[in-house]
Amino acid sequence: MKLKRQIIMVLCSVLGICTVQGQSLDLKLSKKFIQQNLNDAALQIKVLANATPNGKFPKTFENNKEIFSSSSWWCSGFYPGTLWYLYEGTQDQGLLQNVEEKLPYLEKEKYNKGTHDLGFMLFCSFGNGLRLTGDSAKYKDVLVTGAASLASRFNERTKTIRSWDHKPWHYPVIIDNMMNLEFLTQVSKMTGNKKYYDLAIKHAETTLKNHFRKDYSSYHVIDYDVNSGKVIGKKTHQGAYDESAWSRGQGWALYGYTMMYRETKKKEFLNQARHIAKYILNHPNMPHDLIPYWDFDKDKIDQSSKMYAKKDLRDVSAATLYASALLELAQYTKGKESALYLSNAETMLTNLSKEPYKAVYGTNGGYLLKHSVGALPLNSEIDVPLTYADYYYVEALVRYKRLLDGEPMIKEIAK
């Protein structure tokens, strides 16, 4: 069996042909290309590591200045998660030391019941730590306690996990919240507590019903009446306008439903992911290099809007989400459809790995990628590096490396 596996790995590496889920994937990117970009990222992130104070977490690099956050910021888990992935991809022991020094400052967020982002914060960090080290004593309690905190935000009337607690919203649920469901399903598998698994399915089913338009584009925010559970508003917070297709939001949706199919094997989730992928890849405003504009409907912005002058900005963070999700979706589909997802992911990774998107070593504050957009309507994080763009870029590289090595592309935390 071991010899057979070694032969398969050699064939994958030499021929670029890998069998996944009973089908052959024709891999176009070379092992040298993937490894070089992982090695480059490992060197670059050490620049960021050296600049990051104890107890703080990287946020962005703007106006030639490093900007950090506390552990309670929604993105605090992405930097440790990126370190874990780069350690996995390079076996650089210095990265292991960097991440182990950072995690103690994040652990207290397992008690945080004021945010829906605990999947981003804890699963990307402590989850990858458990997966790579197998150290249950060190990481499992953080995940189990954090999952209970996240589940406390579920409401039986709306059948969703509440996203924000602030006004003017009544009971807002954002499409981003799909990403935190993996945290619940994996902890269910680890503990045998089916409650979390069931909550995740209910949230995904309700989101599928209420968040999408007929063309399968997603609204950013759905506001519910907490007493009746009925939808009372369909809005945006970071997109161009309420009816626009905010690019990163489409990425949260694509990744979320692809992942939820993996976790549940429910065909409606797979079909939703396929429809979302078709919407993204066939959109007339998708640029040739497949690095999307920050909003697919940016051409409909009124010329009098303050956003108009910057309407053509790209959002690299959306592209990294697309690339990682499409690599996985290629496994669950067949023939030309699967090949389409794979080839588009490869194009995205190729273009992200060079100028103008990939940063030169020592520049960009130590972040790997340039040209992301946080929230243009809020005049926040405009055309800057963002920590989650780096995370999903490295995740996609590692996923591709596994395919080249003849390994399972998805390696779950739960055993």
> Low-confidence parts lasting 5 or more residues at pLDDT below 50?
none
Mean pLDDT level: 95
Number of helices: 13
In helices, the fraction of residues equals 40-55%
What is the beta-strand fraction? 5-15%
InterPro entries: 6-hairpin_glycosidase_sf (IPR008928), 6hp_glycosidase-like_sf (IPR012341), Glyco_hydro_88 (IPR010905), UG_Glycosaminoglycan_Hydrolase (IPR052369)
Protein name: Glycoside hydrolase family 88 protein
Organism: Sphingobacterium anhuiense
Keywords: Hydrolase
Description:
With 415 residues, this protein is mainly alpha-helical. The model has no long low-confidence stretch (mean pLDDT 95). A hairpin with a 2-residue loop joins strand 1 (17-20) and strand 2. It is globular. It is built from 13 helices and 11 strands. It has a 3-stranded antiparallel β-sheet, with no helix packed on it. A two-stranded antiparallel sheet has the order 1-2. Strands 3-4 form a two-stranded antiparallel ribbon. 50% of the residues lie in helices and 11% in strands. The two termini are 21 Å apart.
